[in-house]
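Batch manifest, entry 17 of 40.
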Amino acid sequence: MKKLFKNEWVNIILVVIIIAMLLPQTRTPIAIVFNKLIAFSPGVTDEEERPEIESYNWTLEDRFKNEVDFRQFKDKVILINYWATWCPPCIAEMPSLNDVYQDYKDRVVFLFISGEEFETSQGFMNAKGYDLPVYRMKTNYPDPLEGYKLPTSYLIDKKGRIVIKKEGAADWNSAGFRNTLEELLAN
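Output type: structure tokens
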């Protein structure tokens, strides 16, 4: 009898979770929490397998409608994050990205690229209290920096090699990632 009761509770909990996932009001918050739970520090690509950016010929636009030439970031450590306000994994990783940004914004180039209108993306940042720099693409990205899957992030070293490519949510505020940043900044 005890086992049957326990199974009934498990079934009830599963039904409640399924119903909550079907309701639009609760689906996104549940997905965000789930993504935060499964987010780990992003893995570093082995040095001999790191692809290089083919070109720095890329134009972005900042929230003030100023053109930003990607060439100005050559020889710098760069973190690119493709994201959207409607993307639960993107929202889940934003707090950790904001924490890293606060500590490294003067030494690392951060490019948070969204295809949404600035009114939407900057409104999200303002509502959450984030200070992250939002951009839109004016020209196509250079290979291999595609961002079709959201979120997709790239950490690029001073030589233009991709040290980390991460699709999906990650814990960017981990000791491992911070150590990677420090190593790249020292070289």
